[in-house]
Amino acid sequence: MNLSLQPKKFINSQHTGKYVKITVPYGKKNADLELNIHYMDEGNGEPLVLIHTIGQSLYTWRNLIPKISSQYRVIALDLMGHGYSDKPASALYTIEEHAHIIKLFLKAIGIESAHFIGFSMGCAYVTELARTEPSLVDKMILLSPGGITPQMPVFIRMLESMLFGGIASVLLSPKKIEEALQQCYLDLTLVTPDIVKGYSNPLEDVEARRALRYSAMSYDEEAAFSELRNIQNETLILLGSDDKWHTTEHAELFQAALPNAYFSVIRNAGHLLHEEKPEKIAAAILQFIPVPVIE
What we know:
Layout: E1 18-24, E2 33-42, E3 47-51, H1 65-68, E4 73-77, H2 95-108, E5 114-119, H3 122-132, E6 137-143, H4 154-157, H5 165-170, H6 174-184, H7 193-200, H8 206-217, H9 221-226, E7 235-240, H10 248-257, E8 261-266, H11 273-276, H12 278-288
Parallel strand pairs: 3-4, 3-5, 5-6, 6-7, 7-8
Antiparallel strand pairs: 1-2, 2-4
Helix pairs in contact: 2-3, 6-7
């Protein structure tokens, strides 16, 4: 296994993974624009694509990838505008745009169909992809699905505002990120300086903060939620028992809206359940997406 995948060795860096170029219609004067998408591609087996939420990068999967890359071909990308993928100034970062970029990325690396795991707002990008490109999406696992809630810190809630979003992005210091992470973990000893640095480093430049702000402002959960009933994919919804940001009732609404969804709670885990309890998440994945037995 690549040392970069081991939790203690994983450094959130532009040199961690690979890059692939995709062409998007975000250039000036309606010209096409080439974007570099940063990603990791580890293991063998059925493709399993990991989609992070806004303000994150593939770094959030550092603990889970080593647990599942011996059973699946695990593909984790930095969404457009996030991590070390390119950040086009002309992108609006809507749910539809993010889903479209994921589709183009998968086409570029030769993936015709895959299972998907989405986290938080990233779940909307997965479900939009399932709605618009049903042949591309097989089973879905949604970790703590949903958007910004009243339970989140003020500076995060401000990101949704056209008026105050710019101020909120400026306030996004390592200290603020540390405060947010402390609300996302049940075990606060996990919030180390290295983890804070891993989250804060990719958010230091202006375009990364713009991408975060526009992704938050363009996230229309009501519209995305209304389309869930049209998605037939078998879906597993997982929520941390101690998630302070998304409630059990919220997750159950997603279960009720999706025709073929199951819901389960991961005990002793906060909002970042896949970081805090990677073994339990890996076990749930293996149960939901069994690895074929080769005779």
